[in-house]
Amino acid sequence: MNKFIKTSLVITAVIALIAVVAEAFIIMLFPQYTFKGHLFVPLYFLLFYVVTSFFVHRPMNAGEFTRFLIGFKAVKMFVSMLFITTLAFFMRQHVVAIVFNFIVYYLLLLVPECMYSIYAKKHIKKSKR
Prior knowledge:
This protein has 4 helices and no strands. The protein is mainly alpha-helical. Helix 1 (3-29) runs antiparallel to helix 2, helix 2 (40-56) packs antiparallel against helix 3 (62-90) and helix 3 (62-90) runs antiparallel to helix 4 (95-122). The N and C termini lie far apart (34 Å).
């Protein structure tokens, strides 16, 4: 199976698991923050990480990986702000719920993102000087 497809399936499984945990967390503790469009947030993260995984599979040395990771974080922050702004504009009555859901998913997805970064950094080819 293609490496991109495997990675996409893993990303989908991780985000689905986190979506179940996040939805249970939000429904049990903060039921006022549930709304009809709440699944746009996990869908955004799924699409973002799948598109990003398309670019990460080429072989990289440690320096290239570090530059990629810094660029990834910058693009993620910019695109996330654009997404939140757009979604809040179209769903004005649910702005607080959108931001709250987004923060929950963002924080929960930092764990697998950091785990992958550590794993990838350990398995990177040593650059020749």
